[in-house]
Specification:
The complex is a heterodimer of chains A (about 290) and B (about 170). Chain A has about 290 residues and is of the alpha+beta class. Chain A contains eight helices and nine strands. Chain A is about 45% helix and about 15% strand. In chain A, strand 3 and strand 4 (about 135-140) form a beta hairpin. In chain A, helix 5 runs antiparallel to helix 6 (about 210-220). In chain B, about 70% of the residues lie in helices and about 0% in strands. Classes of the chains: A alpha+beta (about 290), B mainly alpha (about 170). The interface of A and B includes residues 10, 27, 31, 35 and 46 of A.
Chain lengths: ~290, ~170
Amino acid sequence: MFKDEYKQANKSISPSPDLLNSISAAMHKEAEALNENNINSFRKSDRKFSMIGRITGIAAAVCIIIAAAVFIPIMMNSGFSLADKNEVQSPIGGNGTGDSNQLPSPDGTSTAAGTYATECYGTTGAEYTTNSAAETYISSTGSKNDDIPVSSKPEGDSPYPSDELMVLGCYLNANGVDTVETSEVNVEYYSRDFDVEILANSFRTRDAVFMNNAISMLSESPLNNSNAKDEEESESVTVTFKNKNGKDYMSLVFRKCPTFCTVSVCITDTAKTAEFTIDSGQYDRIAEYAKQQY
Amino acid sequence: MCELSLRTRDSFDEVLKTYSNTVYRLAYSRVGNKPDADDILQDVFLRYIRADKVFNDEEHRKAWFIRVTLNCTKSHATSAWNRHRASDEALDYAEHQDETDDIGRLETKTAVYDAVLALAPKYRTVIHLFYYEEMSLTEISEALGLGENTVKSQLHRARNILKDKLKGVEFDV
């Protein structure tokens, strides 16, 4: 058969062992070279990948920084505030701003910071003028606050009274007469002991709501109080401050004309007395006087 | 991500041992001399290394070797070096016709194999693949890239030539 003879003849045709050995060696050499190239190319691609990742990361960081630099000022300008959410809101409807020491003016706009304490707010109809370094509050008749937003009014039955007393106390505190804050407050009001106590607490804690309530009570009927010792006393309110040693330091006597528009400052130790008229806008002079005598 | 493939030493030796004869005998049947068959054998296995191909099974691997061997023999036959050498050998053959009739030819000592080598290359290939590798006409046509009828006609003609040369030899197909 041709097939069998052809197969038999092919059996004698074989590569020599030397040729197979040389081919085997060449294959291994080629394989090692290819593996080396493969590994190198793998490493190169890995390095390339890591370089791409590094560049991408740097680019992302730069983008974040640029975005922050652009958008944060925009957000700040659009009213977004990073200030404490507990910032004081003006009872007369002014916007709470970041600076808690900033005192809103009666018309709702804010004034320069630092003159009044946090609790001190102006009254309706009052106006602010700038007097050298300190803000000078000029009171008007100011016994009504009908234009105060309801939501920002303190709770209570009465509307805001004339609150010159509150403003004065806060003004004193804010301008360095810190006896109210650091010592006990003894408020002597001969007509209504209960209201005096509230007023004393208000001065001690500088709580604007308490103070307003107290003044409201004082304003409503000081003359009709049956406990009033005499006519003259019933028309005045005396607030006595004690210093750190517990001694009487200063008395403020508020006289009604027809509201509490006149205040006499009496420095107890020196027995000096000065009298100021509130509605003439002399709070700064009162504070300055008290500081000088302190 | 780049796939890292490592070629192992053991697999190469095993493949070389299994398919070296197949490749070498097919190459020899095509080129008809030992030096060229040696070159083709080495070339085929180096291509195998570089290809780093994954095969479905051994039949697939064998078909790949046959196909690559055929391609290598074609490339070898058409290479510039081989054409230059062929012209030199033709010159030498003309000058020393009596001495170099069988240069590089292995000693088969069979009339059958000598008759096959005397055939034209295209007839040698189909004879080798059909009778030695026992491939079907379809497989041969796929390996050679020819139509099945073409392979069939080539096989028929090759068989007729061999019948004339090999009186008394029987063909089973």
